[in-house]
Amino acid sequence: MSVIAIVSQDKLDEARSGVKTALEEVSKEDYDERDVTDFMNNDMNTSYYVQWSKTIPEAVKLAVKSFKIRKDNQINDLTPDIVGIETMKKGYMFLLGRDVNGCRVLHMRTGKMEKKDKEANQKLMMLWLSRIQKAEPGKRVTFIMDTTGSSLFNSDMGFVTFIIDCFATRFPGLLEKNIIYNLPGVLNAMWKLVSKMLSPEQREVTIMCGKSEITKYIDEDNLPESMGGKKSFEYSYPPFPDELES
């Protein structure tokens, strides 16, 4: 489903009551009050956690865990300046078009990334997801990991694990599809290891495809020419090459 449905009031109340009780056992240093306020007052935000979890107790545990990780990563305060303007200019990640279900598509070009920039790249990923979630609350995002030009030299297992965890804890429920595009044969062994880390829910939305299959998920009008689409696109920054609020 490309749009998050707000859960029943009973579930909202139960989840919020559970989180309120759980936070009484947690130091205030372990969470950002803005995340808690959003969870307690924003039905859509609470629904992300409840729908991603199988039960309300699991949603409560996830929320408390998520609050801590988001605080540690300072997600609410991330800006292009904190990520690094030079990183922003490289065009590793960008929004372009929508998938066949109307979800925005976030592209990541791993062939251009370097392991030494791991911390900056993690901040970049979180900044983009935060921008998307704020701009279109309740809508999911399709993520394309474009591995064209990637090699063992610049592939980072740790960063791939971070991406998986991003959608599981920092932004639970946000992912519509995870498309692994054009995976080189030399990375097959690494991907087999990664796939074992995926939850059943993550496996269900993960797709491996090349140029001949990608149009099943994103039509030609929303694909860049480099993927066989009709969309002319050249990344530049600043400003962001999209209409989202910066």
Automatic annotation (TrEMBL):
Q: Which domain of life is it from?
A: Eukaryota
Q: What InterPro entries does the record point to? A: CRAL-TRIO_dom (IPR001251), CRAL-TRIO_dom_sf (IPR036865), ER-organelle_contact (IPR053012)
SUPFAM superfamilies registered for this protein in UniProt: CRAL/TRIO domain
> Looking at the record, which segments are called Disordered?
223-246
Q: Which residues form the CRAL-TRIO domain?
A: 95-235
Gene Ontology cellular-component annotations? endomembrane system; endoplasmic reticulum-endosome membrane contact site
> Pfam families, from UniProt?
CRAL_TRIO
Q: Which PROSITE patterns match?
A: CRAL_TRIO (PS50191)
Q: Which PANTHER family match?
A: MOTILE SPERM DOMAIN-CONTAINING PROTEIN 2
Q: How is this protein named in the record?
A: Motile sperm domain-containing protein 2
Q: Which gene encodes it?
A: LOC100185535
